[in-house]
Amino acid sequence: MEMQLSEGLQIRRMTREDLPLLAAWAAEAFPVDKTGMRWTKETMFHHMGDDFRDEHSFVVEDDSGLVGGILAYPCKYDRGDELFLHTIVVREDKRKEGVGKIFLQWFVKYAKAQGKTGIRLDAHIGLPSFAWYEQFGFSPTGWQQQLLEL
User: Fold this and answer.
1) What is the C-alpha to C-alpha distance for residues 21 and 41, in angstroms, rounded to an integer?
2) Which H/E stretch holds residue 90?
3) Which of 7, 40, 53, 56 has an alpha carbon 20 to 30 Å from 107's alpha carbon atom?
4) Each residue's pLDDT tens digit, 20-30
5) pTM assigned to the model
6) pLDDT > 70: what percent of the chain?
7) How far lies 52's CA from each of 61, 82, 87, 149, in Å?
8) What is the Cα gyration radius of the chain?
9) CB half-sphere exposure, 18, CA atoms < 13 A
């Protein structure tokens, strides 16, 4: 399954072979000084790999190769069948070019076409992506993660 996203951008289903590169980009996007979390390529790879399902996960490519990815999986909440957007990441040299925006807009249409009632995600309030998601209509649910360190 491959389709045109926009001029020069193609979408295809994500494979497990895409994860190492996407994990490296994602680890770079979560700096410890902003999140308090110490992501490395290896820890992000395991985190993404634990939740990887190819059914609703996609990558975007151009002539230079992999440009970004959306890792998502189905979930059920009080509103019914939803998708949990685990990770969206764009290669650093392609950020600020609108690739993420086009990709997320496509993903929202995809979720609607699949009959989903919503898309959920976790967003760190200290990162610019938190406000970026609000541009697409995402809003806080009121739930906040809590951690007991052992």
Assistant:
1) 9
2) strand 80-90
3) 40
4) 999 999 988 87
5) 0.89
6) 94
7) 19, 16, 10, 25
8) 15
9) 25
State in words which class domain 2-134 has: alpha beta
- Domains of the chain: which residue ranges? 2-134
Pairing of the two strands 58-62 and 9-13: antiparallel
pLDDT digits (tens, 9 = 90+) for 41-66: 898 899 899 999 889 999 999 999 99
Contacts 24+ apart (CB under 8 A), 68-76: 68/22, 68/25, 68/94, 68/99, 68/100, 68/103, 69/14, 69/18, 69/22, 70/14, 70/103, 70/104, 70/107, 71/14, 71/22, 72/107, 72/119, 74/116, 75/120
Residue type, 80: G
Q: Is 21 left (phi over 0), alpha (psi -120 to 50) or beta?
A: alpha
